[in-house]
Write a structure and sequence with these properties.
By secondary structure, the chain is mainly α. 78% of the residues lie in helices and 0% in strands.
């Protein structure tokens, strides 16, 4: 698949991942944060703020890998 198409698909996949991740984190926050203390809230926000990077990293690596038959 040409890089142009990979990047086109990747943009929409990135948006979808972020929307789904945001909704999941909001749902978890509603369930966890009312009973968590200040340290628990800090840990939750630290983990939730960084966890989205993991799946997006692999998506960006895929988007930037040249396709078959393309010169580097």
């Amino acid at each position: 698949m040409p890089m142009r198409w990979k990047k086109f698909i990747g943009v929409f996949a990135l948006l979808a991942i972020l929307v789904v991740y945001t909704l999941l984190v909001m749902r978890a926050a509603v369930a966890i944060l009312p009973i968590a203390g200040p340290i628990g809230q800090f840990v939750f926000y630290a983990i939730a703020g960084m966890a989205w990077v993991v799946p997006v990293r692999y998506l960006i690596l895929w988007m930037n890998r040249p396709g078959r038959g393309e010169n580097v």
